[in-house]
Amino acid sequence: MKAITIKEFGGPEVLEWTDVEDPAPAPGEVVVDVAATALNRADAVQRIGLYPVPEGASPYPGLEVSGRISALGPGVTGWRVGDEVAALLTGGGYAQKVAVPAGQLLTIPEGVGLVEAASLPEATATVWSNVFMTANLAAGETFLVHGGAGGIGTMAIQIAKARGARVATTVGGPEQAARVRELGADAVVDHRTEDFADHGPYDVILDIIGGDYFERNIRSLAADGRMVVIGLQNGLEAPLNLADLLFKRLSVHGTTLRSRSPEQKAAIVAGVQKEVWPLVGSGAVKPIIDRVLPMSEAAEAHRRLEAGGHFGKILLVNE
Length: 319
Fold this sequence. Notes:
Strand content: 25-35%
Largest sheet: 7 strands, mixed
Distance between the termini: 13 Å
Radius of gyration: 19 Å
Low-confidence stretches: none
Order of helices and strands: EEEHEEEEHEHEHEEHEHEHEHE
CATH class of the largest domain: Alpha Beta
CATH architecture of the largest domain: Alpha-Beta Complex
Helix content: 25-40%
Mean pLDDT: 94
Number of domains: 2
Structural class: alpha/beta
Number of helices: 8
CATH superfamily of the largest domain: Medium-chain alcohol dehydrogenases, catalytic domain
CATH topology of the largest domain: Quinone Oxidoreductase, Chain A, domain 1
Number of strands: 15
């Protein structure tokens, strides 16, 4: 088979579409013939050498795919060769085939095409695990997600709105602002001209930025507010006034999805299948896709991701 390999750490030009060995399913795994994968910020961070591959995981980028099962490992039940699936991965999605634990498989939601389904596993699992399983966002509460135009942001807006929250988000311009309002955002803050902290308080914040956003996040949380930090685009360090935590009874969580155990991921995927897939099937939550490129053009896709300005997910397809 072919896969996108990282020949050395660096810019998008280090990505190569090359021949590699086919994967074989271990006990409890299946092999999926990949129809499509989706880019995530973590792929670019891995490419530059700042996101080490977990032990035992595929060295190729790609944290989600859609495709068809082509082989079953020992002990797999409930799935058959030929089934169309989406899958949450620990790596390996930029390829023609990938092995994945059966517990991380999802059906294709009703009304969603096989290729566009590749845009869903990572974003839905991230939102469900952090916003609902960890932060316990409830109907009627106010939710803020940073980066509303990105893959996580567009999904978070839709799911939170569908489950009855008031949704706020930050964006980088009027065009993005108009589009996130169409997705259901109630309040939109242009981070280039406004301070989101002036528009609070928020009961729950999902932060993909880190760095200097941290202090403002804390300041803008309501009493008993909860924040989950899942990204560090603005840096690793930030000041913290502990009095805010104490007197407002705040909770702050830092999480990653990739490094969780297969059992933990299976529990998250089961929640997505039960709670989020019906929202997708009803049309309340939709895949948001910026563009689709051939797998061999992964370098160009990474340039697009890093340039910013995209809306939703960038997909790579096997032709």
